[in-house]
Input
Amino acid sequence: MRAEDDTEYDDGFDAEDIVIDDYEDDEDDDEEPDDEDELEDDVDDYDDAIEEEVDFVVALYREDGVPQAVDLPWAVANDLDDLIAQLRRLPGDAGATGVVSISGEFFVIVRVRGKVVQVLLNDSVAAGDWPIARDVVDYLGLEVPDDEDDSEVIGDLNILADQGVSEFDMEAIAGDYDEDSGDLVRQLVDLMKFRTQFDAAVDDR
Output
């Protein structure tokens, strides 16, 4: 988005000066949208994950204390805002948590409790290739890592602390890059005591 022109004209400027300045601004207007278009093109270069690449998109919540798991439409695995909107519709006692695994490479956790939204991405480098990972990085206000950067867990490590997953456990599990991302999520789900419901939801795909 182009910054507004905040040039101030003092009383010594005559009308001719102002016309010249406006003309120069018009030239800038012709050039700057090209830069914006290039940035938009960069974002558009991200290919959405296809259905076969989405391991699962599952919402977890407790209703009257009873664990529930729901298989969500696979397409929301490409858009953080869509995933958040889906989670807001669920009647969880303590909000709802969405878990997404893509192609066995990385996972995303999103927790929605009223107006509070927490996010976690276990592999920051995935933001260079996958839309939802990029969305998480943008949501956190971080820069997209370069391909040569080291992978790291980003977001709220305490996102599931009240659900049985301590910060220590989250960091150890999420940062294990030798394991399939879907299996890492299953370890977290085990700690949350949602495994039976989670497996049933995944099998429904």
